[in-house]
Design a protein that fits this description.
- Residues 54-112 form the Cupin type-2 domain.
- InterPro entries: Cupin_2 (IPR013096), RmlC-like_jellyroll (IPR014710), RmlC_Cupin_sf (IPR011051).
- It holds the Pfam family Cupin_2.
- This protein is an all-beta fold and 124 residues long.
- The protein has one domain (24-113): Jelly Rolls (Sandwich).
- The protein has strands at residues 24-31, 34-41, 57-64, 67-71, 77-81, 86-89, 95-100, 106-113.
- The strands form 2 sheets. The chain has a 5-stranded antiparallel sheet, with no helix packed on it. Strands 5-4-7 form a 3-stranded antiparallel sheet, with no helix packed on it.
- The protein is globular.
- The termini are far apart.
């Protein structure tokens, strides 16, 4: 029987600078078609007029703090996120970070994966 050797380990809440003036991004896992990142925001937001438009699907969860995402649509939609809230953002769904908490670091866990047609077998 072979021992299980993890590819990496750590703690998502270590290394948080509460006084940071810039956003921090740590790439945790990179595999073909998959990227997992930890993002720490301390009051940052997307610049006015800036929209993310990623060719990959994105799944994001807020672990601490709070934030709001704004989605570009016929009628713009703003979604507040509190700890535990997550959202799946399909590829090319234009969005921006409207605000993040200035008093408590907002820790995001973001998973980027290749957009494809249809769902995997067994998904509901």
């Amino acid at each position: 029987m072979s021992a299980i050797s993890p590819g990496g380990s750590g703690n998502l809440f270590v290394g948080i600078d509460h006084e940071a003036t810039g956003e921090r991004l740590d790439r945790l896992v990179t595999r073909r078609g998959l990227v997992i990142e930890r993002i720490i925001s301390t009051g940052q937001a997307s610049p006015d007029g800036f929209w993310y438009d990623d060719p990959r699907d994105e799944w994001v969860v807020v672990l601490t703090g709070a934030a709001a995402l704004q989605f570009e649509a016929d009628v713009p939609v703003r979604r507040q996120l509190l700890p535990g809230d997550y959202v799946h953002i399909p590829a090319h769904c234009r969005h921006r970070v409207a605000w993040t908490d200035e008093t408590v670091p907002t820790v995001w866990l973001t998973v980027y994966f290749s957009a494809d047609e249809g769902e995997a077998e067994g998904e509901a």
